[in-house]
C-alpha cells in the first residue's frame, strides 16, 4: 500500500510536459485496488510504435532530447526523483503535439538506497543488481538501453536464454549483442557511454547540451502536424483527451 501512496505523492508533485499528468486517485475497497487516473496517451508507447514503423535518426534524436528533458526534470527535483523502471514500454507518444512523455512512475522514488530491487532486468545497471544502488546514473543506463532498443528494435540482451545468463552478462559489463548492429557511429558511442561505469556515465543535463543530439533534432522529416497524424494509428481521429485508468492491487 505504501508503494502506491508514494506513486500518487510523486505524480501529484511533478509538473512537466515531458511527464504524464496525474488527474486523480482513490482506493477501491471492494476490489482492493488503488485506482490512479492519469492523462490518456492514445498513440501508445514507443515500444508499440517501433514494432510497425521505421524511425529516422533525426526523429530518434528528437525523441531522445524529449526523454532527456523528462529525466532532467525528475533528477533536478529536491530530493531527486529516480524513475527506476525506464523502458520503451513506459515512454508514451502524445500524437496530438508530437511529444514523448515518461509514464508509469509506479516504482519511482526519492530514495536511492535501502529499497528492494525492482524494475525490468534487461534495463538494470550492474550496480543495481550488485549493490542495490538506485540513482540518476541508473536511470541514464536504462535510457541507453532504450536508445539501443529504438535503433535495433530488439529488447536488450534478447540473445540470452535464461535469467542467469542475462544477469551474468550484465554483471560482467558485457553489452547486448544488438549493440553491434548499430551502424551510426555517434549513436553507438553515446550508448556505450551510457552503458559504461557510473562515474563516467553522462547525466541528462550533460546530454541536453550535447551537440550530437541537438544537431538537427528540431528538423525532423515530418512537420509537427504530419508527425502527429503518423503517430496515431486511426484515420480521421479527433484528438479528445480522455483519462487513462491504472488499477493496482494492494
Automatic annotation (TrEMBL):
User: Which GO molecular function annotations are given, in alphabetical order?
Assistant: ATP binding; protein kinase activity
- The residues covered by the Protein kinase domain are 1-213
The membrane-spanning stretches of this chain are none
Top-level taxon in the UniProt lineage: Eukaryota
Q: Which Gene3D superfamilies match?
A: Transferase(Phosphotransferase) domain 1
Under the heading InterPro entries, the entry gives: Kinase-like_dom_sf (IPR011009), Prot_kinase_dom (IPR000719), Ser/Thr_kinase_AS (IPR008271), WNK_Ser-Thr_kinase (IPR050588)
Could you tell me which PANTHER family the record lists for this protein?
SERINE/THREONINE-PROTEIN KINASE WNK WITH NO LYSINE -RELATED (PTHR13902)
What is this protein's name?
Protein kinase domain-containing protein
- Origin organism is Blastocystis hominis
